[in-house]
Amino acid sequence: MRETIAFLRELAANNNKQWFDANRARYRVLRTRFEEFTAELIDGIGTFDAEVRGLTPKDCIFRINRDTRFSNDKSPYKTHFSTYICPHGKKSGYAGYYFHVEPEGDGMIGHSLLAAGAVCIPPIVLKSIREEILDNGEQMLASIAAAKGFEVDRTYSLKRTPTGFPTGTPYDDLLKLKDVCLGRPMSEEELCRADLLPRTIEAFRSTQPFIAQVNRAIQYAYEEMM
Question: d(Cα 162, Cα 6) in Å, to the nearest integer?
Fold first, then answer.
């Protein structure tokens, strides 16, 4: 990870095709290492979440190339490596386990983190998750409390309880979420520890009850759409 962080920091300072082409061989080595790490992460998570068994790194790792078609920022490359391990792969729409490596400092606004949950949720699926929160909110609060070192990500949250849901419940803050996700920042020191893999697996293990509950609601929504 130390070499990966160094590469990404240099990429952030030289985010252009000429630099990347000159360092492509270096990138391929680091990409292969990240694929190997992801494969081991899949195996580890699979010991407590059967829904991700059988996935491959290709199913989970995001491309480093940015989609610049609808962005004012035309930088061609992401300045992070990331993998999202969830049922049926990263594009399935299910909640899962997200591992993100990005340098911080030197003017960079990114940071490395672990996340568990679902983002960019379609309205009909989000409605199902909110109904799950309303019906089984105590279970969800317990699952969140059991997620070691994780906190609810409130970056994308409504100011008011969504239409159709009661106000004044113990779950108001959860009902306002547009992304249903837990996050845990990671320092570069943590990333470079020799026990990164087992520590990451154990951190994700603590989020499995939360993931299972969110995916139950997502599955119900998908079945209703069929």
Answer: 43
The rounded distance, in Å, linking the Cα atoms of 199 and 88 is 24
- Sign for the pseudo-dihedral over CA of 60, 17, 120, 82: positive
Task: Write the CA distances from 157 to 25, 39, 63, 161, 180, integer angstroms.
Answer: 41, 33, 28, 10, 9
Those residues whose C-beta lies under 8 Å from the C-beta of residue 218, and which sit 6 or more positions away, are 93, 94, 95, 118, 125, 128, 129
User: Tokens standing for 61?
Assistant: 């790792």
Burial 73-106 (b: 16+ CB within 10 A, else e): eeeebbbbbbbbbbbebbeebbbbbbbbbbbeee
In tens digits, the chain (226 residues) has pLDDT values of 999 999 999 999 999 999 999 999 999 999 999 999 999 999 999 999 999 999 999 999 999 999 888 888 889 999 999 999 999 999 999 999 999 999 986 655 567 899 999 999 999 999 999 999 999 999 999 999 999 999 999 999 999 999 999 999 999 999 999 999 999 999 999 999 999 999 999 999 999 999 999 999 999 999 988 7
Domains contained in the chain, number: 1
Q: Which domain holds residue 205?
A: 2-225
